[in-house]
Amino acid sequence: MTEETPGFEEKPDVPSGATPDDAEPKAAAPSEEEAAAPAGDTDPTVGLTAQLDQARMALSERTADLQRLQAEYQNYRRRVERDRVTVKEVAVANLLSELLPVLDDVGRAREHGELLGGFKSVAESLETVVAKLGLQQFGKEGEPFDPTIHEALMHSYAPDVTETTCVAILQPGYRIGERTIRPARVAVAEPQPGATPAAAKEEKTDDEESGGTEEV
To answer: Do residues 75 and 83 make contact, with C-beta atoms less than 8 angstroms apart?
Structure first.
């Protein structure tokens, strides 16, 4: 009968060349399913909110593009309409400019009493047509001289004027709307140098007549 030596415990056989740690049991590694499993449940509304934000951003960009295109189109329409009106005005002005000598002849014939018979009817029809096209005659005796619409062909001095005045209309001016196609050709008169204007004389006379001796 074999006797066991007290104080010694049986140890598992360890292969030669192995460390003591190799003899200890190792913890089992987690499986692939356990590693792929999420730590917690993901909220599905987060993804939907992100998609909704992207859709809203895209809609805002498309709306801005549409508004910009609409504004550009409106500007284009206004520019085309403005150019069309300008071209029409220029064409009408060029046509009427060619008719001004005829209208001058009609005016001279009327002044000399020669606008009679069929010539009178034709002349009146012509004046009606040009008036419908917007032609307006201007220039009157006694109005202040304006270099933007008057052309002075004669110059003189007069004691009865207080400013440069049109004293005779040698050739009437014509305009279409605000566009002057020919200035009025006039004779002008300026106040006499050193002379007291008539209005100032009248005012001075009134002051002298109203003056008197003050009562004490």
So the answer is: no
Rg of the chain, C-alpha, whole Å: 53
Stated length of the chain: 216
What whole-number distance in Å separates Cα of residue 85 and Cα of residue 177?
13
Q: Give the full edge-to-edge strand order of the sheet including 150-158.
A: 150-158, 184-191, 165-171
Q: For 112-164, what is each residue's pLDDT tens digit?
A: 998 888 889 999 999 999 999 999 999 999 999 999 999 999 999 998 899 99
Query: Across the strands, what pairs with 158?
Result: 191
Residue in 182, 96, 94 with CA at minimum distance from that of residue 138? 182
Count CB atoms within 10 A of the CB of residue 183. Answer: 20
91-to-83, 96, 174, 176 alpha-carbon distances in Å: 12, 9, 16, 12
Question: 155, 190 in Cβ contact below 8 A?
Answer: yes
Entry pTM: 0.56
DSSP class of 196: P
The strand pairing partners of 146, in sequence order, are: none
Token digits of residue 56? 């809203």
